[in-house]
Specification:
Helices cover about 35% and strands about 25% of the residues. It is α+β, with helices and mostly antiparallel strands and about 400 residues long. The strands form five sheets. The protein has a six-stranded mixed β-sheet, with helices on both faces. A four-stranded antiparallel β-sheet has the order 4-5-19-18, with helices on one face. The radius of gyration is 24 Å and the shape is elongated. The structure holds zinc ion (ZN). Zinc ion binds next to helix 5.
Length: about 400
Amino acid sequence: MTDEAEQVIAELIQTPAFRSAAATLEREHSRTIEEIVRLTETAAPPFQEAARGKLWLDLARANGLQELEMDAVGNVTGLRRGTGNGPLLCVAAHLDTVFPPGTAVTVRREGTKLFAPGVGDDTRSLAVLLAWMRALDAAAIRTRADILFVADVGEEGLGDLRGMRHLFQEGRYTDRIAAFITVDSPNMEQIVTGGVGSKRYRIQFTGPGGHSYGAFGLVNPLYAMADLTGRLGRFDVPVSPKTTFSASVTGGGTSINAIPNSVWTEYDLRSESAQELDRLEQRFLALVDTAVAAENAVRSTRNGPVSARAVKIGDRPAGRTPETHVLVRYAQAALAAHGFTARLGYSSTDANLPMSLGIPAIKIGSGGTGGRGHSLEEWIDVEPEASVRGMTAGLATVLAVAGLA
Ligand SMILES: [Zn+2]
């Protein structure tokens, strides 16, 4: 029994236009690989995506993408107009990597494998978007919806989805995007339909400080911080919806023989559920006060008390797209038609932001395989058959949503 989405995909992939587009992806695969390499070797550390953004803009322009611009936060956007003033489908990949400036980004090749930091997450996808533009043009495909291609900033870490926030909350296309597909990392076996929310805090504890021996008995901010961290570690959190916490990065103090006057730790709180995440955040912040009060109660505050300052350094909203939504169903059907078995799952991606606003959004893979993401040994395999098959399945998803004119 085939459902409607399977029917749409089955018909779409048999059209001469789609076959022609797919043939272009195959024929131009080596060009796609060259562009993966060029983009990867143009470093894009967090908050420093401009050079890669400019290169992508130039490549997209060479492909004939219209209305190209780099917006106020560094997203590069370009429009492929459809036949009418139909809904806007946004297709995105992120420019930024997790790697700091100075990381060696030269691509090493071993057979069909490419090794370099960021090569799969998410540089391959940037090149795949370019390949899709060429394939659509070569097949003279017109869509009903306008397609907004976006190479965005701020997906990773402390970037805190600032590219998406701008796009959906204050940019030129705010309130116009009706559906969103982000292409992120090679893996075709997962369609992300839920966004894990996260809240990140840096908690700075300060106190009077003093000599470790001579001023013994004074309050010590490190004890308050350790108390907070220990208590957080014993929190009960639900297994489902999956809810997690971590004390992650820490520092402070000045000398082995000094009671520190300043110490800090960064904490990561996450949940599949917006409600559970809020609950965890409230418990955590209450605990900060508890830990500070406990330290001030057991040692002397004659030179001043310990205090804490909580700074929110990350806030990714949780959200989900119903599994029955046509966007999800098209992606499932398109992947299945190309031999992929995709499960639906949760992750933290650019799609979180539109999901949290109730805009249908998913994440799909860019094709081929890869591994060791976020490590210096990151790799992808561009073996043509699997690579092109993945790209073709992705393009079928985009076209099913945008609609052939
Ligand atoms: Zn990514």
